[in-house]
Each structure stands twice: as C-alpha cells, then as structure tokens.
Specification:
The chain is α/β, with parallel strands linked by helices. It is built from ten helices and eleven strands. It has a six-stranded parallel β-sheet with strand order 3-2-1-4-5-6. The chain has a five-stranded mixed β-sheet with strand order 7-8-9-10-11.
Length: about 300
C-alpha cells in the first residue's frame, strides 16, 4: 500500500514542492509514495510548477485508513480532518511541535531551519539519492519563498547552502532573480476577490483553547493594497465569525521595507498589545522587521494567550 505525502491545508509552495520531492525520494528507496494536496495551489506555487514542468499533486481531502507522511506542519488544525483515522508514518517540518500524535513509531525529520525543503535536501543527502534537475528547481523555489529570499529571520546557513547546491543542479544561474519573479507573482492582487487573498496563505492555530487564524500576503510594495484594504478588513471580520474564531489576523508583509502591517479582527485586541508591545489603532498595527509568521508572530501570540 502506497503512503500519501501531504502538506497542510491551504497549501503553500513548501507543502506542495515538499510533497512532490519526498514522494520521489521515497519511491527511489523502495517505499511506494504518492504526493497529494489539501487545497488549491496558490499563484506562486503554480508559477513554480509551470517553471519546472510539473502538474499539481492529486487533490485528496480524506485519509482514513491510509498511511500518511506529513510535510510542513504538526498541527491538527492544519492536517486532514480525518487524520486520527489515518496512520502517520513520518513527519518533515520546520515549525514548532504541534498537537499531532501517533499510535505507532514514525520517521521524524524536524529541524529549526527556514523551510521544510531544506530538510528534504538533507534527506536526499542521507539516502545518497541524486536529485533530478526539475525537482531541484521545485525545492530551490520553496526555500526562496519560505526564507523570503534569505531576508527572513528564520533563514539559516543550511538554507543558503541548500539553495546554492540546488541552483547548480537545476541550472539556475541567478536564483535571486528567480525569487523576485516569484514575489512579483505574489504581488499581483488586482481583481482577486478579498476572500481568495485572505485565504491564499492562511493557517489556524489552537492557542490555549482559542482558535486563531493568521493569514499572510507577501508583496514587494504595500501600495498594491491601498484600494482593497477595507475589503480585506471586512472579510477577516466575516471569517472570524464564520469559523467561531477568537481572532483572525492578516499580515500584509512588505519584503522590501522588511515589515508587516497587521489587520486585526479579534474578540480582544488587548491580546495584540500584550503579544507585541504595540497598541493597535483602528484595528491595525505596524510590526517593523516582522517577516516570519512562524518565528515572529505565532510565538509571542501563543505566550500572550497562555
């Protein structure tokens, strides 16, 4: 029976590219694996797939009775809804350890690096499996995306070394230019419905029993949101009520200014001041130097709820 390799709900490039790369590796070492996804691919991910000649993995939402290899998360809120009825056989992740548990021993690759695909590169090295040119391109782009072309505080020496090695395999001469092309795709928000933008890179977190949704839009110029910011604020307020969430936060991240404006819909905005030391004004706050949701946004917020 083949295992299914899948990332989190509302998959980003790391989840999609990681699923493809791990499934290929597993098949090469004699372990049957199929890459899948838990949602539609984002415009950035589609750009990457097109650039290196891949179709999106199969859309599969149910995994009851199946063997599952999890990529890019360990949170039940981000996993398949029926994950408790599946057998988790492995995890590759670079986030905080979540609440996903297993009934059997599993393979576990967790490292404090900027991207899951950096860990996947380490797996290829460990098993001494040659990385195909096209898969190297996928992995390269995922790392550039997650590390914001090395600007993110999550970026490590390991991420940079992996990008350099993967660029050589993929035949990419200027990987920073490729990274900027990806972020230009991310910055194209015109004529996109507010809900689609809010959900483009959105994750739910259980914070001391409170459900908190955090979305992030990374662009090269925040002015692209000037005409739609009020629509985004109205939509996160609706999303909060629809999901029974305590809070929904949307980070509008400017990778050139290296900071984020947070739009807030919350039962208690005081939690934001507790977490970040800045009082919101009109349900907005500027977080200077904040690029990473997992390292700079989630931990202080989790502490505030605790």
């Amino acid at each position: 029976m083949a295992m299914y390799v899948v990332g989190h709900k509302i998959p980003d490039s790391d989840s999609i590219c990681g699923a493809i790369a791990i499934a290929y590796l597993k098949n090469k070492i004699g372990e049957a694996a199929i890459p899948t996804r838990l949602g539609e691919v984002s415009p950035e991910t589609q750009f990457i797939l097109d650039r290196f000649g891949f179709e999106a993995p199969e859309l599969k939402m149910s995994y009851a009775g199946e063997e599952v290899y999890i990529v890019d998360h360990t949170e039940k809120t981000q996993a398949p809804d029926d994950i408790d009825q599946a057998t988790v056989v492995g995890v590759v992740d670079h986030h905080k350890l979540g609440d996903l548990t297993t009934s059997t021993p599993l393979e576990c690759w967790i490292r404090p690096v900027g991207c899951s695909n950096t860990i996947v590169k380490m797996m290829y090295d460990f098993y001494q499996v040659e990385i195909p040119k096209d898969i190297a391109g996928l992995m390269l782009c995922a790392i550039l995306s997650d590390t914001v072309i090395f600007k993110s505080p999550t970026c490590t020496t390991a991420d940079i070394k992996c990008v350099e090695a993967l660029a050589e395999i993929a035949g990419v001469e200027d990987y920073k230019e490729l990274g900027m092309d990806m972020f230009k795709v991310k910055s194209a928000v015109e004529d996109t419905p507010a809900r689609d933008l809010v959900m483009r890179d959105f994750k739910d977190f259980n914070m001391n029993g409170k459900l908190v949704g955090i979305g992030q839009l990374e662009v090269i110029d925040l002015s692209v949101f000037d005409d739609i910011k009020t629509d985004l604020e109205a939509d996160i307020a609706k999303l909060k009520e629809e999901g029974g969430r305590h809070s929904v936060l949307l980070l509008l991240t400017d990778i050139m200014q290296e900071g984020s404006q947070m739009l807030i819909a919350s039962d208690d905005e005081g939690i934001i001041e507790t977490a970040y030391g800045i009082k919101p004004e009109q349900s907005r706050v500027w977080l200077d130097g904040v690029l990473s949701r997992k390292k700079q946004v989630v931990p202080p917020l989790q502490n505030a709820f605790a």
